[in-house]
Amino acid sequence: MIDKTWGSAAEAVADIPDGASLAVGGFGLSGNPIALIEALLAQGTGDLSIVSNNCGVDDWGLGILLNAKRIRKMTSSYVGENKEFERQFLSGELELELTPQGTLAEKLRAGGSGIAAFYTQTGVGTQVAEGGLPRRYAADGSIAVASPVKDVRSFDVSGIARDYVLEEAIVTDFALVHALKGDRHGNLVFNKAARNFNPLAAMAGRVCIAQVEELVEPGELDPDTIHLPGIYVHRIVEVGSDIEKRIERRTVSVAQAASREMPEGA
């Protein structure tokens, strides 16, 4: 039996070196591998290049690595909700490769599938294809590093010729993901919205480290319920179901808000 379990998050990330590239699951604060991120913070690893949909918030998720100045570059599709992310980027402290969300997802999937690059209509006619998007600012506010021009070709699809931009796949040194359940072989099941970028990030990492809320024995997971096969997962750590899970913005309807303000028995 191939047992991929590790004793702790700290042990599982111990060999991630300074300068490593990471694909990290999560969307907003949903499905963040927070135990692995905190372990990485505690061991002092820095100069990281991270691929993730966003960078958490100021005090949670990837935001804690950002606040500690451990991240050199982010490849993301969303910068909002994190003031420190914005500050570091605009001040020239952080490099940012801003990527359309669907394109980012496909770049990760392609990397995990052995596809070197692909053509997509997303970004055609914009700076995504034409280049010049700021990736790093200089101290004086000028652009120190800009995005390059990308190859654009016309393809006849279903009798209609359209332009497509070439996007290269993403493969990283490591991947950090969060799942609801996993077995000792690394097969993973994700819960609802936490499925987001987690499977794609897992596929893209040469070494995938998964934190799971519940660890089960091989054969206990119904094969039809498995979202990611264990072939993509190399290390698995059980973190328990009581692990902290945050919500970025809790909203309720006007009627719900009013009902909560009514006195008991009214």
Descriptive account of the structure:
The structure is a single chain. By secondary structure, this protein is an alpha/beta fold. It has a domain at 9-116 and 169-238: Glutaconate Coenzyme A-transferase. Helix content is 23%, strand content 28%. Strands 1, 2, 3, 4, 10, 11, 12 and 13 form an 8-stranded mixed sheet that branches. Helix 5 (101-113) packs across helix 7. It is globular, with a radius of gyration of 20 Å. The termini are far apart. The mean pLDDT is 93.
**How much is the average pLDDT?**
93
The CATH topology assignment of the domain at 9-116 and 169-238 is Glutaconate Coenzyme A-transferase
Outline the low-pLDDT stretches.
Answer: none
Number of strands: 13
Shape: globular
Using the coordinates above, name the CATH class of the domain at 9-116 and 169-238: Alpha Beta
What integer value in Å does the Rg equal?
Answer: 20 Å
- Summing up helix and strand content along with how strands pair, one would put the structural category as alpha/beta
| Full CATH superfamily name of the domain at 9-116 and 169-238 | Glutaconate Coenzyme A-transferase
Question: What is the annotated CATH architecture of the domain at 9-116 and 169-238?
Answer: 3-Layer(aba) Sandwich
Give the ordered list of helices and strands.
HEHEHEHEHEHEEEEEEHEEH
State the end-to-end distance: 61 Å
Helix content: 10-25%
Strand portion: 25-35%
Question: Treating each run of at least 4 consecutive H or I residues as one helix, how many helices?
Answer: 8
Question: Biggest β-sheet: count, sense, barrel?
Answer: 8 strands, mixed
